Amino acid sequence: xxxxxxxxxxxxxxxxxxxxxxxxxxxxxxxxxxxxxxxxxxxxxxxxxxxxxxxxxxxxxxxxxxxxxxxxxxxxxxxxxxxxxxxxxxxxxxxxxxxxxxxxxxxxxxxxxxxxxxxxxxxxxxxxxxxxxxxxxxxxxxxxxxxxxxxxxxxxxxxxxxxxxxxxxxxxx
Amino acid sequence: xxxxxxxxxxxxxxxxxxxxxxxxxxxxxxxxxxxxxxxxxxxxxxxxxxxxxxxxxxxxxxxxxxxxxxxxxxxxxxxxxxxxxxxxxxxxxxxxxxxxxxxxxxxxxxxxxxxxxxxxxxxxxxxxxxxxxxxxxxxxxxxxxxxxxxxxxxxxxxxxxxxxxxxxxxxxxxxxxxxxxxxxxxxxxxxxxxxxxxxxxxxxxxxxxxxxxxxxxxxxxxxxxxxxxxxxxxxxxxxxxxxxxxxxxxxxxxxxxxxxxxxxxxxxxxxxxxxxxxxxxxxxxxxxxxxxxxxxxxxxxxxxxxxxxxxxxxxxxxxxxxxxxxxxxxxxxxxxxxxxxxxxxxxxxxxxxxxxxxxxxxxxxxxxxxxxxxxxxxxxxxxxxxxxxxxxxxxxxxxxxxxxxxxxxxxxxxxxxxxxxxxxxxxxxxxxxxxxxxxxxxxxxxxxxxxxxxxxxxxxxxxxxxxxxxxxxxxxxxxxxxxxxxxxxxxxxxxxxxxxxxxxxxxxxxxxxxxxxxxxxxxxxx
Lengths: 173, 526
Known about the structure:
A: globular; B: alpha+beta; Cytochrome-c3 Hydrogenase, chain B; 15 strands
């Protein structure tokens, strides 16, 4: 124990470079935070729902929590249950196999609630539109408030989409 | 098709015995051997193939194949570098081979859903990728079924519920999880049967994301299939487009320029690094060690930004195409990439050191979620999951494609089969991929990156090693368009190992076991 403490003082200090500060992320994030403070009582709870994506959009949404974006500092949290969520972030075209679970997830959310379609397939079915296995975009089964196109959209584009939704929500109240 | 030498015939006789005729045999352009046998000979042939230690890595249907009436069923067996495709001929139903090759069970259910094929004496005839909303007698992969929107069944009652295996006994209770999970992950249903805190049984139900990938490819020209191949699984975009293009190129006997193969291989290895970095971070999140997790999630984001810089896509999309790659990567860019990877390597080692010297992490990783070595062959496991359990196979070594004959990866094998072994194997593979890329960038030749590709008719089997393991693509082109494309990702087989790996573990360890196996839902559900 003693050796450890001593070596902490004596050892050469290792510092790592800070990840490059991304001004766009800061700007969008700060703007979102302002909107969240005004409309959502300082915290926005998001539930992610995959209705048939190719998992690229999930990866980008997960990336929003890495130290580069760290969107929790702007008041945004991903919650484990739809019962705690303000926003449903939906990825992928809606498959027949997921349609029932997707509706149940939406129904479990308290009002007021918002739905964002993330990625081309969630927006309008993308390459799967008109095939046997999918119903189409998310708007086939849920009222969609905002669409973020992309294959998949980047974390920054998703963040910009959230800001657009916040502004829209403020306009509605 | 290439006629086979006599040595191949005697090799087949060695396996199958003298009483099964091997005269209807041909070699495919991917090096695979096609053997047609009569239906009555089939059970004997399968039993002998099994005793020769082959794995069943694919089982799928094709209609009106080679002027045969009805539906042909192709069984793909693999043993090291040998690929044998068995095609039973003649009328009558075939017996289920799931008792001999357990990996056949999902495959047979898949054939049943897609084509309405029944297998005699099958022990599991529940629907697989067609869930309750699909009408009865609907077989989407048949040619007679047009790929158009259907009306799902709406009046579903309790009687339509999927029958899970019943596990009963004193103190056994069920924990149903999914399809919508607590985290930002893909949908799937896990039915745990638990005694006290210990998992006694797990049954998976997948295919919530069935998007009809294989049907969607049909009728398209090979180039038009690339967005579909990329959508098989987002983080395997390069591997799945490469395996598709390889099959198309083998059929057309297209020579892919050297420089194109260098770029493809660099992209394949970059994809592997990004995928493994994500896993390593994810495993650490699941044991509550954010300090370590963030080391890797930062590196993963850096890697994805580098992907974007090199190819214009964070998922390396839009690069691989039939005949080569869509555009060249200038040498200056490659030099920057090499410099970036040197920095990444140093930081990766720092992260590893932090993790592997943290006892609380080792305590959670070690002895958790053991995949027994004896499962590798029956379930056709591949990739880091198999190599952490004593497996020694890597497609890049057993079926070297492109330039992998010159750039031989070091196959890292461990024997514990637990989460720690998978973490360590993936770490070793990241280091190995970094070395491979470094060497490739040093030695990349000048020249074109596009060969003359034109779709020729025929069929071929291709395999690649994705980050998750062996991905298979069997492609059949007719009149310049895809007639049938069978995609089987490593995840399809590896998923079934998790039912075994979680036994005698506790439900809270399930997320880390799942993450350590890095199974793609999208790549399985197709």
